[in-house]
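Researcher: Re-running this chain for the archive, since the previous output was lost when a drive failed. Same request as before.
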Amino acid sequence: MNKPDFLFLLLGASYSSFRFAKEFVKNDLKSEFKYDLELNVSHDNPELKQFDIYPDDNGKKYFDLTDKEVVEILCRKNKIPVWIDIAVSKSDRKKTTFKLLCAGRYSDDKNEFYYTDGGSGPFGIKSPNHPIGYKEGTKFKLKKK
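Model: Regenerated structure tokens:
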């Protein structure tokens, strides 16, 4: 997958996640987006030959990235993680921050992407983490930066 196509998917998933989060949170979410990124959450076996795997990514985290920085980090040899969970995680007066949790398996085969059937490629739209004691139907505040 080339970088412009991946950026298109990232922006679409961000907007979907942004809209979904509004159902749960009291915060006034801003349309300026930033990203916190966690690589190789799946800790895949480097012996898998079907995918590109980067064991050096274990434990790597990046914070306060732009969409273009995310694309630069995740697009490797025109391959991207086969799944990326995206959820709103923080909000302040200027921006909304998404957490991206990424598989360690990289592919350029769209059939390998977990959420292709839903139209979001590798992106799984998740709700913000609910606080302890969350009651369904009630909105909660996200932490601020």
